[in-house]
Structures are given as C-alpha cells and as structure tokens.
C-alpha cells in the first residue's frame, strides 16, 4: 500500500493529479530499485492504443457542433416537441442534452454549448439564473452515458471491454436519467409556477423538426456504423468530425476558418491534459498490480462480504467521494486498473461495471468542491457558485436513484448489449 500512501500524500499537498501519479510512481520506483526504463516503456505504450485517437476526435466534433450552429437547431427541435408545457424551457434543456449526448460524448461540451444558449433564454423568460444553470449542469451528465462517450472509450481502452457493448449499455440508463430529471423539472415547474413558451405554429414546428433532421442523423450514423461493423469506434469518431464539419460548413453555413481554428485549439488543450493523465496513470496502474494492491483490496472487501451487490455499493461510495475531488478521466485511470481485476471474483459483467463507474463519475461533475460542470454553468450564468450548488441539489435525487437502479439491476445495462451479442 506504500504506492497509494505516496499518492494520497501528494494529492493532499495539492499536487495536480497527473503529476501526482507520475511523481508517486517515480518515488516508488526509486525506493524499490525498479529500473526507470519501465517508466518510459509503460507511459509510452499506454498511448499506442488506437482507441484513444477517438478521444480528441469526439472533443473536436463537439467543438465544431457548438460553433457551427448544430446546437441551436437541436434546441429549436426540442422546443417544437415540448415547447408549450409549463416550465418548457427546462424540459427543452434536458431533452436537448439527451439529443446532444448522442453526438458529443462529453459533459463539458453539453454544459458549455447548450448552456450558452439556454441559460440566457431561460433568464429572459423569468427563470432564476441559478435554476437555469443547475438544470444545464445536471442534464449535461447524460452526455457521457448515452453513446458515444469519451469516458467509456477510456474505460474500454484500459480494460479491453467492447466499446460497442459499453455504448449500448449506456442507452437505457441515459434515457432513465433524462426521464427522471424531466419529471422533477415538471414538478418544480408546477410548484414554482414556471413560465410557458409562446406557442409555435404547426409550420414553425415542422420547419424546426426538418431543419434538425441532418443533425439527428449523427447518432444513428455513429452507433449504427459501429454495431454493423462498417467502422471501428475510432473510425466512428473521425466520421463524426467529418459529418459535423459538413453540417457546419455546407448545410448550416457561417462556420469560418477562425471558428475552426478556435475549435482545434480547444481540442488540443483538452486532449493534451487527458493524454498526460493517461500516460502517468499507466505506470501507476502497472506498479499497483505489481504491488498486488487490487488483490489486497479484494481480500479486504471479501472480509466484509462476498456479495457482488455489496461490492458495487462500496465502489459507488468510493467513486462518489473521489468524484468530488478529482476529474473524471483521472478517477478512471486511478481506480479502474485496481478494481477491474476483482470483477471475476464477484462475477460482475465488465459492461455493467463500466456503466456504473461512468454514471458515478458523471454525478461527480455536479458535486462540489470540484464539480467542473458547476463551474462552467456558473461562469455562463454569472451567478455565485454556491447558488448553483444549492439549486442543483434536487437534481441529485433522480441521479442517485438511477445509479442505485442500475447498480441493483444489472439487466438495465446488459440486456441491450446482449441482444446484439455483446457480453
């Protein structure tokens, strides 16, 4: 456990996660006389997995859609569907996140892209700005659960689990998250008498729906292509970028070279941070297995109970706490290599476990003190962070409820992948 103690000490000292992983590994290797060639070998080999190419590609696709008019058309489509009910803009916000999640794979992209448009619109219609921000942050957690998902791609690359199986496993939980939040928003709208949108004519609804059809085809192309074997998950990410670019430049227009350069720069910054954490986490995971940390933790858990449900509930507790303090990819790379070897002992499906892990970490995105999505929407809405934290608390109830449902009933995740032959 020496390796873990070093890491915890560095994190408590405020060392960034990526550097804490690398420095803990370096110090442990120096102390135990492990050749530093292993450091070079493990960090470099961790980045050779072709699946990881999908990460910057999906980030780029999300940036292009946010800057190229796709987001606005998705919002208009959702308004045409639910625009006349009380509190309709909150419902549009959640429904737009469900639709947009099938394109970007990133909660950050959803929070920033949809929030820029919808928070302003909700404020103008009389919603409290902190509530508008809270709805946006909470609904953005759907993004990495409904496929495609950057978090699931990273999990799959770490464990060798089928990306297609993970993608299909996230569909039902993601829809349950959206449905539960829409039900809560409807109740809050009734209780607080939230406003209705002006009625759209049938002609306006028809135009909004038709205008969004090309954008709505992207999830079908990406997921359909993967499941049919036309292209791999990595190739699907490249297809998403090409399709998003065609929509932004040709179909919608108004997407110029400056906006494309801005999207490239944002993608480079975010991708570089992810890859740095991945490389350092690889050597840390290798050392953790070498020190038999997973087996020691498994033995400790087995002393408590050999029930798979108890194991998963303990994992939920661990991940919810870690998600409060660490970024999603960092937690994945820190925890999955340690916990994944235990699944065989408890007879847990890797697909089920992957969706449970990702759902936990999405809740972490709206949980202080880190809660990155809270910071994003707080900045957009220009309201104090604590006001957003208070406003988002009711939305934790449906999120936790869905997490428990998915944990207790694995078939919620596994039945859809099983239908097409994934395990």
TrEMBL record:
How does this protein sit in the membrane?
Multi-pass membrane protein
> What do we know about how this protein assembles, alone or with others?
The complex comprises the extracytoplasmic solute receptor protein and the two transmembrane proteins.
Record keyword Cytoplasm present: no
Instruction: Give the transmembrane region(s).
Output: 44-62, 98-119, 131-155, 167-188, 209-231, 237-255, 267-289, 309-340, 352-377, 383-416
Family membership: Belongs to the TRAP transporter large permease family.
| Cell compartments where the protein resides | Cell inner membrane
Any GO MF annotation of the entry: transmembrane transporter activity
An example GO CC term for this entry is: plasma membrane
Briefly state the protein's biological role. Answer: Part of the tripartite ATP-independent periplasmic (TRAP) transport system.
Please report the name of this protein according to its UniProt entry.
TRAP transporter large permease protein
InterPro entries found in the cross-reference section: DctM, TRAP_DctM
- In terms of superkingdom, the source organism counts as Bacteria
Using the record's annotation, list all stretches that form the TRAP C4-dicarboxylate transport system permease DctM subunit domain. 4-411
Q: Which UniProt keywords apply?
A: Cell inner membrane, Cell membrane, Membrane, Transmembrane, Transmembrane helix, Transport
């Amino acid at each position: 456990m020496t390796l873990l103690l070093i890491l915890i000490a560095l994190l408590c000292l405020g060392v960034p996660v990526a550097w804490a992983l690398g420095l803990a590994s370096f110090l442990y290797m120096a102390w135990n006389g492990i050749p530093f060639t292993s450091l070079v070998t493990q960090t470099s080999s961790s980045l050779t997995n072709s699946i990881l190419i999908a990460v910057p590609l999906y980030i780029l696709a999300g940036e292009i859609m946010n800057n190229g008019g796709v987001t606005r058309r998705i919002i208009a489509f959702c308004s045409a569907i639910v625009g006349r009910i009380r509190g309709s803009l909150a419902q549009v916000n959640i429904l737009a996140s469900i639709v947009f999640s099938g394109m970007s794979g990133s909660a950050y992209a959803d929070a920033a892209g949809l929030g820029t448009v919808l928070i302003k619109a909700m404020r103008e219609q009389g919603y409290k700005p902190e509530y508008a921000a809270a709805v946006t942050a909470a609904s953005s957690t759907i993004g990495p659960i409904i496929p495609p998902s950057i978090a699931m791609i990273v999990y799959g690359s770490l464990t060798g689990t089928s990306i297609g199986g993970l993608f299909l496993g996230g569909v039902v939980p993601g829809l349950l998250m959206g449905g539960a939040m829409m039900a809560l928003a409807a109740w809050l709208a009734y209780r607080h008498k939230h406003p209705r949108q002006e009625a759209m004519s049938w002609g306006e609804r028809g135009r909004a729906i038709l205008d969004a059809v090309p954008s709505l085809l992207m999830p079908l192309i990406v997921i359909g292509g993967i499941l049919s074997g036309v292209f791999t998950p990595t190739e699907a990410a490249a297809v998403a970028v090409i399709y998003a670019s065609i929509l932004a430049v040709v179909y919608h227009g108004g997407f110029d070279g400056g906006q494309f350069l801005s999207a490239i720069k944002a993608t480079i910054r975010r991708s570089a941070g992810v890859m740095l954490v991945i490389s350092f986490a690889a050597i840390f995971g290798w050392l953790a297995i070498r020190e038999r940390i997973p087996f020691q933790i498994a033995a400790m858990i087995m002393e408590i109970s050999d029930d798979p449900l108890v194991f998963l509930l303990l994992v939920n507790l661990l991940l919810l706490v870690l998600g409060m303090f660490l970024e999603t990819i960092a937690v994945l790379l820190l925890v999955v290599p340690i916990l994944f070897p235990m699944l065989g002992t408890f007879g847990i499906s890797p697909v089920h476990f992957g969706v449970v892990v990702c759902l936990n970490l999405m809740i972490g995105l709206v949980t202080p003190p880190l809660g990155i999505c809270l910071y994003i929407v707080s900045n957009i809405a220009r309201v104090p962070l604590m006001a957003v934290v208070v406003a988002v608390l009711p939305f934790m109830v449906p999120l936790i409820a869905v997490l428990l449902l998915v944990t207790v009933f694995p078939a919620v995740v596994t039945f859809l992948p099983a239908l097409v032959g994934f395990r």
